[in-house]
Amino acid sequence: MPVPPKRRSRSKARRNRAHAALTKVQLVTCSKCKKAVPAHTACSFCGNYKGKESLKVKSKTAKAKK
Predict the structure, then answer these.
(1) Contact 28, 41 (CB under 8 A)
(2) Do the domain assignments include residue 66?
(3) pTM higher than 0.70, yes or no?
């Protein structure tokens, strides 16, 4: 029968957790509509990526009319 693992000491556990910190999301401004967008992602507001339209986004006015 296997032996249960030993308890990790407080210092070893904290040292192991030292690299688990969260990082901030890198935001850049969209070149067309100037909204904050995550880096390397198409803009969800206007649909542009690197200056070209890559997504067809329904306008907000069309959604409001429904």
Answers:
(1) no
(2) no
(3) no
The structural domain count of the chain equals 1
Residue 38: domain span? 24-55
Element (H, E) at 53: strand 52-53
Residue 1 DSSP symbol: -
User: Quick one: which of 59, 38, 62, 63 has its CA closest to 49?
Assistant: 38
HEC states along 4-44?
Answer: CCCCCCHHHHHHHHHHCCCCCCCEEECCCCCCEEECCCCCC
Instruction: Please tell me the predicted confidence (pLDDT) of residue 11.
Output: 94
Domain membership of residue 43 (yes or no) is yes
Q: Evaluate whether residue 60 is within a structural domain.
A: no
Query: CA 14, CA 17: separation in Å to the nearest integer?
Result: 5
